[in-house]
Amino acid sequence: MTSPHAVTAGALLFDMDGTLVDSADSIDRVWREFAARHRLDPDTVLAALPGRTAHDIVAGLLPAAGFSGITAEVAWIRAREEATADTVTEIPGARRLLTSLPAHTWAVVTSASRTMTERRLTASGLPLPRVTVCADDVRTGKPDPEGFRAAARILGVDIADCLLFEDSAPGLLAARRSGGTPVAVGAHVAEPVPYRVDDLTAVTAHARGGRVHLEIRQPRAHAEPAEGIRL
Fold first, then answer.
1. pLDDT, tens digit, for every residue of 152-162?
2. How far apart are CA 26 and CA 85, in angstroms?
3. Are 80 and 30 in contact (CB under 8 A)?
4. What pairs with residue 13 in β-bridges?
5. Do 91 and 19 contact (CB within 8 A), yes or no?
6. N or C: which terminal CB in the chain sees fewer CB atoms within 10 Å?
7. Active-site amino acid positions
8. How many CA atoms lie within 13 A of 147 on its CB side?
């Protein structure tokens, strides 16, 4: 790790799966069952998942299903996900970071349903946010920026004054399109971003003077933030 970068922001917006919680085993199991159910290639199904809502995934994989068919499949997926929520754990550092933040300075923006969001956060021992924008709340999922902009608006903060934590390519694209500053969590997404961390143990934060003050320790290979980034 390099020396930490000092950053300030009005609010922090977090994706959930892969950013705050490790739900990979649960998600992998359910969508492999979905692939077998419809005789689809499981690798093709899994490649369609990151950052997208269940409705958008099913619509893309089963274009002939029609509205009622897609709705029924999404209900099946959500029921199976609820049955596997016990396998979810926190991303390292998530609990420490969230509990250091006042409730009005952070939100969760996720492609999961509201029910699954609450189940996964609770199962992993994380606090429930005051503001959550879920799949149920948006017309268009990521990579559309609607969810991030809605969360900033509810918090009463300019999206340009927000740090947006994401782990997927569609999520990071949504973050960039929103006008906020993306922070990539994890080493598996190659998109250029101002800040990148291996996990949330690399981020410390405290609130002072109505602002969130952070130190971000980036991997050595990503030592400097992009030019022109200022919060």
1. 999 999 999 99
2. 7
3. yes
4. 107, 164
5. yes
6. N
7. 15, 17
8. 35
